[in-house]
Specification:
The complex is a heterodimer of chains A (773) and B (241).
Chain A (H helix, E strand, L loop, with lengths): L1 H38 L5 E9 L1 H7 L4 E7 L1 E8 L2 E12 L11 E5 L9 E5 H7 L6 E6 L2 E12 L19 E7 H7 L5 E9 L5 H12 L8 E2 L4 H42 L1 H9 L4 H41 L11 H28 L2 H5 L11 H5 L7 H12 L1 H39 L4 E9 L3 H7 L3 E16 L2 E10 L23 E4 H7 L6 E6 L6 E10 L7 E4 H8 L5 E8 L4 H10 L3 E6 H55 L4 H37 L13 H27 L3 H6 L3
Parallel strand pairs in A: 4-9, 6-8, 14-18, 15-17
Antiparallel strand pairs in A: 1-10, 1-11, 2-10, 3-4, 3-7, 5-8, 6-9, 7-8, 12-19, 12-20, 13-14, 13-16, 13-19, 15-18, 16-17
Helix pairs in contact in A: 1-6, 1-8, 1-9, 1-18, 6-9, 6-13, 6-18, 8-9, 8-18, 12-19, 13-18, 13-19, 13-20, 18-19, 18-20, 19-20
Chain B lengths: L11 E12 L2 E13 L4 E6 L5 H8 L7 E6 L2 E2 L5 H11 E4 L11 H9 L8 H7 L15 H13 L5 E5 L7 H18 L2 E6 L10 E6 L2 E7 L12
Parallel strand pairs in B: 3-8, 3-9, 6-7, 7-8
Antiparallel strand pairs in B: 1-2, 1-4, 4-5, 9-10
Helix pairs in contact in B: 3-4, 3-5, 4-5, 5-6
The chains are: A alpha+beta (773), B alpha/beta (241).
Chain lengths: 773, 241
């Protein structure tokens, strides 16, 4: 019995652990972010302009609702790092000559903020420093606004604005090839020809004041300075990504523990019923002595509560430990100054109450029936079990069942409720492993699709300003370049009825060879001569269908407002966007033929030459390499998923073990006499074990496929729940995932099967014969 | 049949058989040196009070238990010191058991309980014949829960004889039954012994049963305290208690 009770305690522990680990991470990350935002004055509203005079800052600061404001110069640079041939780009942000900005203050890991000086100083973000092992006083060269400068590292910092660091135009972190650098305002303004001007405002809104109102006022104030439109914190990339992650953790804190607790309740019910059946006589004697129903009930409740508390203790301990380990892993992705390890004591109390309630509910039925048994009836042994010929035997009369096989099917069909729940428990264990693992395949497919089917270019170069496509001929003639394609992208706001969405409108050549848009079946969608293509997620958010008209407010250049017809819907996993024919877009923007993105395919051996020449080409803002991005992404992803998968597989294994071990042990207890009788009749140990293990095998055969199906369904739910603007993960359940789920469950079954086999060996034949049924 | 039994080589031969159980801190000497020979085809009743060691002796003869010392030999097979695998093989091939509490498999019908044995036996009789022999031809497809105690015990006898065992060992076969039902069971056992020639040992504390035996052995305190031979085997139908 001890093993069985421990197995149940472990299932409860699994639920508690997974709940706690999700809660710990959720609470810790939320608290860390909250504190970080607060201490470092993270902005509520962000806005970029082309160039606005410094005098305007005062005007913006005096807008109603603006509490704190910082004006900045932002820019980009191409960096050359010693012994690193690949293109590295950087986002540049200015800090005031006086030090910390009023909004979006920096956390100093090491060193200091850049001061105004002749030799340009720079503070760099920690992820970039780590990736290149840059230390204080190291130098590297940068091309800012076409001019080469040598930058000296004076500080290593983190910023609430860049907790999740993604290169522009990319979707995945790439710490090697993209960094964020802070320069003194004077230095950066000089380099960017922005003296006496700013191109970025970040501000905090007075608590209680409408953020929308501030955004409207800013847009009015800054429209003629080339504003791309102010946006609130929830549209800020790093914030948005982290919020999505927190939502996932919250979902995990509910879904998985619910499954665990359900299984624990079922197991408690089965085991306690069995235990009380074996103790009927004791119950009878106690009642005959005058113990009340309540006292009997309490006696068994104590045991149930002890199991729950054991589970709770193991669960708390391992949940906190795992939470801590996973939290460390999160720090690879999220650049926080440090992780606050937090758990709200309220949660612990709630979790304790839930565990105790689950245990009591699980045991309740059997405890109540034990307490309610009249002593005389309790004194009598339970009547002989009734069996019947099962439907499979009736339906398959031509199959010659051996008698042990008949015993298996009849035993399973005698208690259909219990059998169903056992199958369900095994299915849940399988499903948990499937859900824990499918995400890796799904994310892999998502990324591979994006980069193999949709983005075939080796390199994407973003230009500072749109140029005439004839410039592409020069690029195509360079050594090492195989093929070049130009595109035009512009920030826009799409408006349909009351719905608005800020995104990028991309003009693509009609005969594009490198980057496409695809539909749900990953087939290329051909570009209509006019009209828009919208990502399905975006079309849904705007509430438009093919044929509807959408207002497109272009947020740069001449800022035309266009009305375009939605000509088709595309389906992408990463990001959302609007697309149209390049020529049609150029006509609509009234700028003549222009491109501002260059896609290239390279001769692999000569790619370094191309990188170097791109770095030295003025007008090229940043370059992204496909392979590099993929490599670094999968490296990090694989590590995280391995940890995550191991944890989930372990949890699935615990459930499977809990269910299977208890089923096996109860079978052994209930049928020890039958099995001993067969041993006496000359059946060998293994022939008899076949009956017990065959029962388990049938439960597995039914439970595992059901678990696959359930896992698939749950995966679908998870995916739907986690759809965000940034990515929509497809449900991909590979054979490998199914095999892994089955292996985890089968391994648990083998362990429980072996223990049962061993116990059966030690069965005392003579003792069993002496006892009455 | 009984008269020429002595001339044959014994089926079982035990010498100096002892068995000691350790119960908590006490040693229980269940058998204290039993020398016994059982002959082919004879029906032996072993009498003894509870705790006299008769069940222990039967368990050792049936290969369910091994002696602490002494020897027990079935034909050429040495049972003392045999491995679990050998004892299983021995029970499967040679021994039929009937127990006080029937030990039927509740999930199998009467017929299937018999088949459970015939399908692993070397030379079984048809299960239906075995059930017919104990008078249960009409109840073959009933589950144990649908049968009376006497019927269940007769299924157990059918199951024991269906493999055509060399030896039939019965431990208090009527112990859980009223006398009328018990007699039906004894009739079935006597018929099986007569028609199949199986050496049959019945252990009981009920002295009335002794009259149906060829030979009666009495055990007390772990040793054989008496033995006598009935001149005539009395028909079990005429027994009463």
């Amino acid at each position: 019995m001890r093993g069985q009770l421990l197995a149940i305690a472990l299932v409860i522990a699994g639920g508690v652990a997974v709940c706690l680990l999700s809660l710990v991470n959720y609470t810790s990350l939320s608290a860390t972010r909250e504190q970080y935002y607060q201490e470092h004055q993270f902005a509520d509203v962000f806005v970029s302009v082309k160039r606005a005079p410094r005098q305007l800052v005062q005007q913006a600061a005096s807008l109603p609702g603006v509490a704190r404001l910082a004006s900045r110069v932002e820019g980009t640079a191409k960096l050359t790092l010693p012994d690193y041939p690949e293109p590295v780009s950087a986002h540049l942000v200015s800090v005031p000559p006086t030090g910390q900005p009023r909004v979006n203050q920096l956390f100093l890991r090491e060193g200091r903020l850049p001061a105004p000086s002749h030799a340009p100083e720079v503070s760099i973000i920690g992820s970039f420093a780590d990736a290149h092992q840059l230390r204080l006083d190291d130098t590297f060269s940068a091309i800012i606004n076409g001019r080469k400068q040598t930058l000296k590292v004076v500080g290593i910092v983190e910023s609430p604005e860049f907790i999740y660091v993604i290169p522009p135009g990319g979707m995945l972190p790439d710490y090697q090839r993209f960094g964020v650098l802070w320069l003194n305002q004077e230095t950066l303004a000089a380099a960017m020809d922005m003296r006496g001007a700013f191109n970025s405002l970040v501000l905090q809104v007075t608590p209680g004041h409408s953020i929308e109102d501030v955004i409207d006022q800013l847009d009015r104030l800054l429209a003629r300075y080339g504003s791309t439109g102010a946006f609130a914190r929830h549209d800020q990339f790093s914030h948005q990504f982290l919020s999505d992650e927190l939502e996932q953790l919250k979902a995990m804190a509910v879904i998985f523990p619910a499954i665990f607790m359900g299984v624990a309740m079922f197991l408690l019910n089965v085991v306690i019923t069995r235990l009380i059946n074996t103790q009927r006589e004791i119950v009878a004697i106690l009642k005959a002595f005058g113990y009340s129903n309540w006292q009997i009930g309490w006696h068994y409740s104590q045991m149930v509560l002890a199991i729950a508390l054991t589970g709770l203790a193991i669960g708390c301990f391992s949940g906190l430990w795992l939470g801590h380990e996973l939290g460390e892993l999160y720090m690879d992705y999220y650049r926080f100054p440090s992780l606050l390890f937090r758990i709200d004591p309220q949660w612990l109390v709630l979790l304790t109450l839930i565990s105790l309630a689950v245990a009591l509910l699980g045991g309740w039925r059997s405890i109540r029936s034990a307490a309610a048994l009249p002593p005389a009836e309790a004194m009598r042994p339970e009547g002989p079990a009734r069996y019947h010929i099962t439907p499979p035997e009736q339906l398959l009369p031509w199959i010659r069942f051996r008698q042990p096989s008949r015993m298996i099917v009849r035993q399973l069909s005698r208690k259909p409720g219990r059998t169903t729940l056992s199958v369900f428990g095994i299915a849940m264990a399988t499903a948990i492993v499937v859900v824990g693992n499918f995400q890796f395949s799904s994310v892999s497919l998502m990324v591979h699709t994006q980069f193999a089917r949709v983005q075939k270019q080796d390199l994407t170069a973003t230009l500072t300003d749109p140029v005439n496509p004839s410039a592409l001929f020069n690029m195509a003639r360079q050594n090492g370049v195989r093929y070049v394609e130009g595109r035009r992208s512009a920030p826009v706001e799409l408006v349909h009825e009351h719905r608005r969405w800020r995104t990028v409108l991309t003009g693509m050549p009609p005969d594009a060879h490198l980057q496409f848009v695809v539909d749900r079946n990953l087939e290329n969608v051909s570009l209509p001569p006019a009209g828009l293509l919208l990502t399905d997620f975006l079309a849904e958010s705007l509430g438009v269908r093919t044929g509807d008209s959408v207002q497109v407010q272009v947020l740069e250049g001449k800022r035309p407002v266009l009305t375009l017809v939605v000509a088709g819907i595309t389906s992408e996993f990463l990001g959302v966007g609007a697309y149209m024919n390049l020529n049609a877009m150029n006509r609509a923007l009234r700028e003549g033929p222009r491109v501002n993105q260059v896609l290239m395919n390279l001769v692999p051996e000569q790619s370094n030459t191309v990188y170097q020449s791109l770095r030295d080409t003025p007008g090229i803002m940043a370059t992204n390499l496909r392979q590099a991005m993929l490599d670094s992404f999968f490296e990090t992803l694989a590590r995280t998923f391995l940890t995550y998968t191991s944890i989930i597989s372990l949890l699935g294994g615990i459930i499977a073990f809990g269910v299977i071990y208890n089923t096996a042990r109860i079978s052994l207890a209930e049928r020890g006499r039958d099995l001993a009788s067969l041993r006496v009749l000359g059946y060998s140990h293994n022939e008899v074990a076949h009956i017990l293990l065959g029962e388990l095998a049938i439960l597995l055969l039914l439970g595992i496929p059901l678990g696959w199906a359930t896992g698939f369904g749950l995966a679908g739910l998870v995916v739907t729940a986690l759809q965000t603007e940034l990515y929509r993960v497809p449900v991909v359940v590979t054979g490998k995932t199914l095999a892994l789920a089955a292996s985890v469950v089968v391994l648990s079954a083998l362990i429980s099967g072996f223990i049962t086999w061993w116990r059966l060996r030690r069965l005392d034949l003579v003792a069993v014969l002496k006892t009455r049924e | 049949m009984a008269s020429d039994a002595h001339q044959k080589t014994p089926v079982f031969q035990t010498t100096g058989l002892t068995k000691t159980y350790h119960q908590g801190e006490v040693d229980v000497h269940a058998l204290r040196g039993v020398d016994l020979a059982l002959y082919p085809g004879e029906l032996v009743v072993m009498l003894g009070a509870s705790g006299s060691g008769k069940s222990t002796l039967l368990n050792i003869l049936g290969g369910l238990d091994i002696p602490s010392s002494g020897q027990v030999r079935y034909q050429d097979i040495e049972l003392s010191g045999a491995s679990d695998r050998d004892l299983t093989r021995y029970r499967r091939d040679y021994v039929g058991f009937v127990f006080q509490f029937y030990n039927l498999i509740p999930s199998l019908t009467a017929r299937e309980n018999v088949i459970a044995v015939t399908e692993i036996a070397r030379d079984p009789m048809a299960p239906e014949d075995a059930l017919d022999m104990v008078g249960l031809a009409s109840r073959m497809d009933h589950f144990p829960a649908q049968l009376s105690g006497g019927e269940q015990q007769r299924v157990a006898i059918a199951r024991a004889i269906s493999k055509r065992p060399q030896v039939l060992l019965c431990d208090e076969p009527t112990g859980a039954l009223d006398s009328a039902t018990g007699i039906l069971v004894l009739v079935a056992l006597e018929r099986a012994n007569r028609e199949t020639g199986t050496t049959t040992v019945i252990i009981t504390h009920n002295a009335s049963i002794a009259r149906m035996a060829d030979r009666v052995i009495t055990l007390s305190d772990g040793v054989i305290s008496g033995e006598h031979r009935n001149a005539v085997r009395q028909n079990p139908r005429t027994l009463s208690w």
